[in-house]
Amino acid sequence: MKQYLALDVGGTKTHIALFTLSAAAELKIHKEKKYKTQDAQGLAEMLMDFHPDMSDIEAISIAIAGPVIDDEVQLTNVSWKVEKKQLVEATGVSHIYLLNDLEASAYGIPYMPESDLHHIFESEKVIPGNAAVIAPGTGLGEAGLYWDGKHFHPFATEGGHCDFSPRDKTDVSLLIFLQHKYGHVSWERLVSGMGIVNIFDFLRISVDYDLDPELEATMLQGDIAANVSKAAMDGEQVAVDTMRLFIRFLAIESANMALKFKSTGGLYIGGGIVPKVWNPTYQEMFLEHFFDVGRMEALLRCMNVTIILNPISVLFGAAHYISPGKLPKA
């Protein structure tokens, strides 16, 4: 049976898997390994460490956090570049495909079992049409799926880098705070792991919270976003308010995407953050702000909203992108 490699290359980690796909598109992973992306000099180094003998590999599908242009990708949050030509030379595998990570995730959605999906809103009036995927993680990924009447056709976007749009005085103050830090302020600066940290930093210096100094010092060590989400679960007020703003901004940008794509085929929320932190309070808060779009509320209520629970959805989609008999043109 032919073997394939699938990769999910993110700003924090790179996940590589060796897999086979049956004629019925059933995915079987035979081995896998995760690498720290920043620790490697490039992708070829990780590939050859994972599978030194590439003679049995039919094709490699690489999902990357960044825009693919002329078979090259400069990772959004990593210094080195990925080039198809260089990888073909290093591995000897001629069928290598580069695609955006959220585009890859979109390719996997039609194959996901119900156990991988958590429906947070199910419309009473489902209208077939385009779909959208938004995924807060290290950064903010966004992708669409064009519906041709019979099939979905995923496509990549860099919508997470569009300008953040404030709605109230707190949002404006937050925007000004981040403009001093970054200059241009995109949605990714708020709806992502770094976004949680940015919101937390803004609140703890602009609002008089009674935050224990030792707890604050602990929260600022290691994975700050994870520390904040945990502190929110424990009831620490600044962390609670941080996560409330994060969920609110996620809802607003999700609604923006859904309206722009007219995604009556559904809105899917992926990434590593949401499945870990989701709870009934966040769900109620999300839906309140998601539907707060004035005259277009009725349209949004035609769209199912679903959280992708599969932690390897990008890898899963990259694998299905090169399913047997469906190899894309090089």
Offer a quick outline of the entry.
The chain is α/β, with parallel strands linked by helices and 330 residues long. The protein has helices spanning 43-50, 84-91, 101-108, 169-182, 193-206, 213-219, 224-233, 237-261, 274-277, 280-290, 297-300, 313-321; strands at residues 3-9, 13-21, 27-36, 57-64, 68-69, 72-74, 81-83, 96-100, 117-121, 131-136, 140-147, 152-156, 267-269, 305-308. It starts with a strand and ends in a 9-residue tail after the last helix.
Give a description of the structure.
Helices cover 37% and strands 24% of the residues. By secondary structure, the chain is of the alpha/beta class. The protein folds into two domains: 3-107 and 312-321, ATPase, nucleotide binding domain (Nucleotidyltransferase, domain 5, 2-Layer Sandwich), CATH 3.30.420; 113-309, Hexokinase, domain 1, CATH 3.40.367.20. The strands form three sheets. A six-stranded mixed beta sheet has the order 9-14-13-10-11-12, with helices on both faces. A five-stranded mixed beta sheet has the order 3-2-1-4-8, with helices on both faces. Helix 1 packs parallel to helix 2 (84-91), helix 5 (193-206) packs across helix 7 (224-233) and helix 7 crosses helix 8 (237-261). The longest helix is centred in the C-terminal third of the chain and has 25 residues, at 237-261.
